[in-house]
Amino acid sequence: MAKETVRTTPRPFSLHWGSGRIVEEASYAGEHHEPAIQLLEFDDGSLSVRFCYYDHAGRFQRSPLIVARDAVAGMRAALAKTPRLRSFLKEMVG
Question: Judging by beta carbons within 10 Å of its beta carbon (0-12, 13-18, 19+), is residue 93 exposed, middle or buried?
Fold first, then answer.
């Protein structure tokens, strides 16, 4: 298993429709990639969640996130450290 890359938060992001900061991130170093769930806080104060992944060299990948069942426990442990993101996801699933 690869070693998880440490990325500090908050850190900036910029998209075509707005920019802001990644304020929380839960990630897990899996066999093939490092899936991440990020809480994005836009400059206007709105919040969004991004499901993404990084390669093992720490580079952001612009492809769909696929998470295998064997990554669930690692992602759960990572989410335990992100109270705002966990709350946002709980709202999504009811």
Answer: exposed
Token pair recorded at residue 22: 């990644």
CA–CA separation, 44 and 30 (whole Å): 34
Instruction: Give residue 63's Cα distance to chain centre.
Output: 14
10 Å Cβ neighbour count for 63?
8
Q: Look at residues 69, 29, 21 and name the one whose alpha carbon lies nearest to residue 46.
A: 21
**43 in a domain, yes or no?**
yes
Count how many domains the chain has.
1
d(CA 67, CA 50): 14
Per the domain annotation, does 34 fall within a domain?
Answer: yes
49-85 pLDDT tens trace: 999 999 999 999 999 999 999 999 999 999 999 999 9
